[in-house]
Amino acid sequence: MPPGPPSWSQPPEPGGRRPTRSPVPMPSASPRMLRLELGLVLVLAFAPSVLGLLFLALGPQGTAPAETQVLPSLASILIELFLSWSPVLVIGFLLARNREGWAGIGLTRLRAGDLGMGAVLWVASFILVLVLAQLFQYFGQREVDFLPEGLPLWFRAFQAVLIAVTAGVTEEVVVRGYAQTRLEQLRAPAAAILLLPTALWGVLHVYQGLGAALTIFGLGLMYAWYFQRTRRLWPLILAHILFDMTQLVLILAGG
Prior knowledge:
Number of domains: 1
Number of helices: 7
Largest sheet: none
Structural class: mainly alpha
């Protein structure tokens, strides 16, 4: 008889007080299968970005002109959305097949406290990034035209929302929720659980310059530590969306 789905309840602590951290679910697949699944998800999530970095490094030097026509820009956005959301769809399939569910990676029911904690993490993110950006400014940073000024304002606003929501959801689900959970289930050392997914996330941002990538790495360590302590993914998703959205709104306002 196959094993039942992992239990998400945890007995109350002495005195009736419930623990604040959900337990790591017991995996229903073998360690070898978990490693294969994790490798597949990471390849889907990071291979397009790595290929893009190689193209930038080996291609013609200089900044390519930004696309300023709506239809070609929309087609480019649709391709990027497909590449970004594909790993999340695969994760959903794997969690369903293993009978873990989204709660297995910290996406339990949204609570009122998650909204407040998301706002706290949003503010903390800006403070940390401001400090780290000053420390790593001498490593270099590249200006990236996320929202080309030649496009209509309504389209740039629409694009900003898509960028913020997509990055906030997909990156937190893949890097924090899924990768950290799988590494915990594989009994990896605590340092590896925090550092490896975060380092990969930092590599995603090398196109903004080494200084920016190091800053993002530092921010990712804060997010990784929070998830390690709480196993709550909603506050990180909300903080990530708000952080990116604020930066994009500032870009729109500056334009």
